[in-house]
Amino acid sequence: MKQYSFTVSLLIMFLLLQTTALAVMQTGDSEENINYKWSFVAKVGPAAERKLAMVTRDTVLHSGDEFKMMVNLQKQCYVYVIHKSSSNEISVLYPTSFEAQFELEKNYYLPKGRSWFKLDKNVGIETFYLMASKERLLDLEQKMNSYIVASKEQQKEFAAAVVTEIKDIKKKFRSFQTLCERPISIAGNVRGTKKEEINIDKFDVATLATEISANNFYSKTITIEHK
Predict the structure, then answer these.
(1) Rounded distance, CA 77 to CA 104, Å?
(2) Alpha helix segments (H runs only) across 62-216
(3) Could you tell me which of 138, 40, 120, 119 has the C-alpha nearest to residue 81?
(4) CB 200 within 8 Å of CB 18
(5) SS3 of 166, please?
(6) Residue 194, helix vs strand vs coil
């Protein structure tokens, strides 16, 4: 009887330790260790009637429309912005170098300065992969580097490998959650301002940033129907 009681006590102690360890793991996993600001803004419409539009979800843009992005790290994490063009060409918009060191709370514009990306005449689907991780995504970086140095004949194969790697990463981290995704500024600040008061060519896209907080990993895919 005493031996049975001792065994039960050990079992209960073991279960309590396992429960405590699980609670500690869950508490650690729920901490916000990814935090950054992000904006994706387009200039749309005929040249004489250009308007600003926030790109937050799948949308339609036309050849000649322009777009610009901004990344601002609030905590030390690794953000990746990868573009797959309508011609299935891959490019890393951010970071500018996988080995680069970025300052916290500093705006990094894509492209730099006052320049904007402009959609060419190659219509189709433009895909933007936005990812953030507490740790570097080294396998993705390696596949991107392989694509960059590949010959024209090989790039199609390496581009497919990059997209597959992105899908695999998202599957691997799908259990981690986004804790917060909220606009820093209300878009009405722009809409409510008289048109003549806005110099679109000098507009700071950081004004329309969204703050993103997540646990270990975050991803978002935005597709542009390029017409």
Answers:
(1) 10
(2) 138-149, 152-172, 188-191
(3) 40
(4) no
(5) helix
(6) coil
Average pLDDT, the chain: 82
| 80-96 residue pLDDT tens | 999 999 989 999 999 98
Burial class (CB in 10 A: 0-12, 13-18, 19+), 1: exposed
Tokens of 104: 């916290």
**Nearest to 58, CA basis, from 223, 181, 221:** 223
Of 130, 133, 159, 134, nearest in space to 147 by CA: 159
Q: Is 208 helix (H, G, I), strand (E, B) or coil?
A: helix
Question: Tens digit of pLDDT for each residue in 100-128?
Answer: 889 999 999 999 998 999 999 999 999 99
Letter string b/e over residues 10-29, b meaning 16 or more CB atoms within 10 A of that residue's CB: eeeeeeeeeeeeeeeeeeee
Q: Is residue 130's pLDDT more than 50?
A: yes
Residue 120 and residue 69 in contact, taking contact as beta carbons nearer than 8 Å:
no
**Is residue 5 predicted with pLDDT exceeding 50?**
no
pTM of the model: 0.79
pLDDT at 131: 96
The single-letter code of the amino acid at 183 is P
C-beta of residue 127 within 8 angstroms of C-beta of residue 54: no
Please count the other Cβ atoms lying within 10 Å of the Cβ belonging to residue 87: 10
Helix (H) or strand (E) holding 217: strand 217-226
